Amino acid sequence: MILSASGITFGYPKEEWLLFENLSFTIKGPGFFSLFGLSGAGKSTLGKILAGILKPSRGLVKKEPASGPILYSHSEERFPNWESVYQHLQKVSVKDNQHLLEKFKKIGLESVDLNTRFKDLSQGQKNRVNIARYLTQNFDCLIIDEALSNVDEPTREKILQFIKKEFSNRTILYISHHVIEVARFSKQIFILKRPTNSSIKKLFKIKGLDETPCCPYPQSTIKEKGIEVLEIAT
Ligand SMILES: Nc1ncnc2c1ncn2[C@@H]1O[C@H](COP(=O)(O)OP(=O)(O)OP(=O)(O)O)[C@@H](O)[C@H]1O
C-alpha cells in the first residue's frame, strides 16, 4: 500500500495561520512507521488528514490501492456505556478477526475485566481495549495517535511487538513523542518539523513557544539503528 500526501495545505477554521502549507510525503507500506515531532507540530492533525477525518483546503491524500480503510485511533476515545466492554468488542469486531481478539487478550488485556463498563476502567486499560477495538476491524492502514500513552512501558512494548508481527502485511503509522522507544520497531521515521511560515512564527511568539523550525531528535542513536529518517515540513 502506498499512501501519499501531495501539496497539503491546512489551517483550522477561525485560525489566521496555516498549519501545513504544501506538505508532501509518501509512506511506502506495508510495515510499521512512526511519526514524531514536538508538541503542537501538527502530528494529530496530519493523522486526521491522512485518515480523511479533516479535509485540507488544497492538496490530495491518495492511497493505492484505493480499497481498504485507513483508521485513526487516539487515547481519548470512549466506548458506549450501555454495554460491557466485551459486548462492544464483539459487536464491532469483524467475525474473521475474532482469533486476533483472543490472541490480543493474552498480551494486552490479561488483567482487564472485559465484563465491566468502559467508564470503570483505568486510563491504561481504556487505551488497551480501545486498541483491541481497532485491531479487530479490517483496515489497510491504522494510525495510532499516542493511543497507548497511559499503558506501562513493558506492556506497551509487548503490544507493539504483537502489532508488528500480526499486522506485517498492513501499514501502521504510530504517532509518538518518544522517538527512541518506537525507533526499533520502525521501518522508517517521519519527523514532522514545525512550519516556518510567517503566520505560524507570529503564533509561536504569542503562545511563547519555541520558534525552532526543526524538532530536535537524537540523530546518532537512530542512525546507529540503521533506520531511515525522513524530515517533512512545509
Ligand atoms: N480543533 C482545533 N482548532 C484550532 N486549532 C487546533 C485544533 N486542534 C489543534 N489545533 C492547533 O493546531 C496545532 C497542532 O495541533 P496537533 O494536535 O495537530 O499537534 P500535535 O503535534 O499532535 O501535538 P501534541 O504532540 O501536543 O499532541 C496546535 O497549535 C493546536 O493548538
Automatic annotation (TrEMBL):
<feature type="domain" description="ABC transporter">
    <location>
        <begin position="3"/>
        <end position="219"/>
    </location>
</feature>
<protein>
    <submittedName>
        <fullName>Dipeptide transport ATP-binding protein DppF</fullName>
    </submittedName>
</protein>
<dbReference type="Pfam" id="PF00005">
    <property type="entry name" value="ABC_tran"/>
</dbReference>
<keyword id="KW-0067">ATP-binding</keyword>
<dbReference type="GO" id="GO:0016887">
    <property type="term" value="F:ATP hydrolysis activity"/>
</dbReference>
<dbReference type="InterPro" id="IPR017871">
    <property type="entry name" value="ABC_transporter-like_CS"/>
</dbReference>
<keyword id="KW-0547">Nucleotide-binding</keyword>
<dbReference type="InterPro" id="IPR003593">
    <property type="entry name" value="AAA+_ATPase"/>
</dbReference>
<dbReference type="InterPro" id="IPR003439">
    <property type="entry name" value="ABC_transporter-like_ATP-bd"/>
</dbReference>
<dbReference type="InterPro" id="IPR027417">
    <property type="entry name" value="P-loop_NTPase"/>
</dbReference>
<dbReference type="GO" id="GO:0005524">
    <property type="term" value="F:ATP binding"/>
</dbReference>
